[in-house]
């Protein structure tokens, strides 16, 4: 069991749980683990979102890196995928994003990226933790002329803008329309400046909202986790499309011209359809997680595509993509990985692929959103003995109840059982065509699990 790292780096309340002292140790140990096979002073990039605690965490992190002897380029406020892209582009040894993604402002976090621009694997995070708690940190202290130096490199934001221009300039110019207008919600987060630059450079008509961060309004009733205001805005302004990013810019969700949500599953369907038309969908396969809606499964099946599902977490989606040569994957939450361009979820890239598809196919966003028929989902938490939460697979009565329901669905429904990683809960998720029926069945199975595993 890892002590510091969770499913997406370290994420805690800033300055009380995620203290400068802890960040210093993480930086020093991380620099060692991520660069111990190099024969030069490592170069590490640091980007952050707009949280009030960002510069505090950044200062402690810089100190840890310089103390080890690493050199640092400070990117300032920069989306997570921009940091990943620049890590590869500059051939840096590693990078760090200081962000708590979609969480409220009082949280902050630390995510490490490798020299390939990908989130580091669980094994490296465990190695960093071992170093932090081993008492070896004092041995990793640079002296004299080996001490690292840091410098600001805010101009590298323009490299990220140019990245999009190379991909989309020609195609947008060919198909763009004056009456095609996009509403963009940057969640008062890491995309608040660069999104404006990208859309302006590409000549896409847009109106940008929630782009005035003050340190505490990141994700505050805005962005990809709070779509209601964007839905209203799109309908009131008669816009063609609404786009919402999360706090660190690696997620994107959309809203069609009628104010209806286009979630990650629908984005995967829309983008896969366009890639396939251009013979650019590797092995005719989409990689998603077990939490993707049954509607995405049926879309893939009906269109002769393969849908592979991993455990929850975009890092596991990426692992599957890298292992087997797939180039499109993602999560329902809006993490979409387009591996031909960037090895992590990229909200701006995802939104531009959606816009390219809408313009190129001369269809409304709502028409493309209809590629996937969403099935109702019900999630019920069963409270169990923490030591028994993985035993549901061994209980014959629980297994029989699940098997019976899945046979009854005959491909038009799904049962997914998942123990919580942090709480004494077993999560029961059921999908099907009838909301009332699946709600009844989810509660029945949850009650049975509680009785058997108490």
CATH class wording of the largest domain: Alpha Beta
- What multimeric state do the chains show? single chain
- Give, in spatial order, the strands making up the sheet with the most strands: 1-5-4-2-3-6
Estimate the mean pLDDT confidence: 94
What is the 3D shape? globular
Provide the helix percentage.
Answer: 25-40%
The overall number of domains is 3
SS elements, strand count: 18
User: Rg to the nearest angstrom?
Assistant: 23 Å
Strand content: 15-25%
Major β-sheet annotation: 6 strands, mixed
Provide a count of the helices: 14
CATH fold annotation of the largest domain: Alpha-D-Glucose-1,6-Bisphosphate, Chain A, domain 3
Task: Please state the structural category.
Answer: alpha/beta
> How far apart lie the N and C ends?
23 Å
Q: What is the second-level CATH architecture of the largest domain?
A: 3-Layer(aba) Sandwich
What is the H level of CATH, i.e. the homologous superfamily of the largest domain?
Alpha-D-Glucose-1,6-Bisphosphate, subunit A, domain 3
Uncertain regions: pLDDT < 50 for 5+ in a row? none
